């Protein structure tokens, strides 16, 4: 799998009782329905955590910039 | 001639007639390996290398949980395990995919052959480096291409390799492999491979059925598969 963070979503499709996750780029997985559900739930949880982490990083940068005039926010 | 496909349209024209004759004479034990039969097991010590005269063979690695990863496919004209000469032990298994006509060249014979015909050293080395180049491309394929691209790339590569040994034509290639074989080479489940195959067929780009590959739109297939044949080193215009 490519060693970069993707900003495009993968696409999941169901066929012959199997869930297939395609993309982005090198991702091509086949999952049972149960495994796909658990993976989906896990992805949603991780995405929520990652958003919080991202907001925290932005807040830190904004706070630092407020104390240092001339630093771009 | 057993070796008439060895490095054809690559560097074969750099070999003298004497060297080609000597290589031909060094091959022994010509036989047919039935389809789906293991030639060499992982970790086996070997004292001869195998030249594929006709048919398809592959190399694979089995994981600890029994999952099998196909890591190379060989066509006529390939040495399937020339690297076993310097390595002495083979770190993967070699098996036939179809009935395969093969011949052996003993490693001690190989030493004498290279001593008497130094130009063979470079070409045999080239042959193993070609295997490595194809392996690198397979890593790229599995690591960076989506399912559609992987399958398109595999078919483009295989069609190109077959065309240089004069098997098939620009659009139709006999490819007596199963869908499971190709799915394995592309790191896909058979279900996923089947879906991709249908997508390619419905887009009229290519069709694979009954062991025959039809490349309807070769250029479009190359675009989808990010296929550039440079790594196959087909650089001899005239043989």
Question: What this model shows, in words?
Answer:
The complex is a heterodimer of chains A (73) and B (239). Chain A has a three-stranded antiparallel beta sheet with strand order 1-2-3. Chain A has one helix at 33-67; strands at residues 11-15, 18-22, 28-31. Chain A has one domain. With 73 residues, chain A is an alpha+beta fold. Chain A has one helix and three strands; from the N terminus they run E-E-E-H. The longest helix of chain A has 35 residues, at 33-67. Chain B is α+β, with helices and mostly antiparallel strands and 239 residues long. Helix content of chain B is 40%, strand content 21%. In chain B, strand 9 (206-209) and strand 10 (212-215) form a beta hairpin. In chain B, strands 2-6-4-5 form a four-stranded antiparallel beta sheet. Chain B has a three-stranded antiparallel beta sheet with strand order 1-7-3. In chain B, strands 8-10-9 form a three-stranded antiparallel beta sheet. The longest helix of chain B has 27 residues, at 118-144. Chain B has two domains: 12-138, Sandwich (Jelly Rolls), CATH 2.60.120; 145-232, Orthogonal Bundle (Arc Repressor Mutant, subunit A). In chain B, helix 6 crosses helix 7 (190-202). Chain A binds chain B through residues 1-2, 13, 15-16, 18, 20, 22-28, 30, and chain B through 142-148, 150, 187-189, 191-192, 194-195.
């Amino acid at each position: 799998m490519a060693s970069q963070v993707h900003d495009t979503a993968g696409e999941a499709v169901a066929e012959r009782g199997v869930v297939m996750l395609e993309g982005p780029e090198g991702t091509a997985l086949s999952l049972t329905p149960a495994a796909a559900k658990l993976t989906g739930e896990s992805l949603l949880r991780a995405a929520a955590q990652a958003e919080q982490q991202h907001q925290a990083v932005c807040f830190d940068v904004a706070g630092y910039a407020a104390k240092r005039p001339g630093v771009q926010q | 001639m057993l070796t008439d496909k060895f490095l054809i349209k690559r560097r074969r024209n750099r070999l003298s007639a004497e060297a080609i004759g000597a290589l031909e004479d060094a091959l022994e034990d010509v036989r047919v390996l039935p389809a789906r039969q293991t030639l060499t097991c992982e970790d086996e010590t070997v004292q001869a290398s195998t030249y594929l005269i006709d048919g398809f063979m592959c190399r694979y690695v089995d994981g600890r949980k029994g999952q099998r990863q196909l890591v190379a496919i060989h066509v006529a004209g390939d040495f399937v395990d020339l690297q076993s000469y310097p390595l002495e032990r083979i770190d993967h298994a070699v098996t036939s995919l179809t009935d395969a006509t093969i011949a052996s060249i003993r490693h001690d014979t190989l030493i004498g052959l290279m001593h008497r015909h130094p130009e063979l050293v470079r070409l045999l080395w080239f042959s193993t480096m070609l295997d490595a180049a194809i392996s690198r491309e397979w890593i790229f394929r599995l690591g960076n291409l989506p399912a559609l691209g992987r399958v398109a790339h595999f078919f483009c590569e295989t069609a190109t390799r077959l065309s240089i040994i004069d098997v098939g034509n620009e659009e139709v290639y006999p490819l007596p492999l199963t869908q499971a074989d190709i799915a394995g080479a592309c790191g896909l489940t058979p279900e996923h491979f089947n879906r991709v195959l249908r997508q390619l067929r419905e887009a009229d780009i290519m069709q694979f059925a009954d062991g025959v590959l039809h490349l309807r739109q070769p250029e479009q297939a190359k675009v989808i598969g990010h296929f550039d044949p440079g790594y196959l080193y087909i650089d001899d215009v005239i043989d």
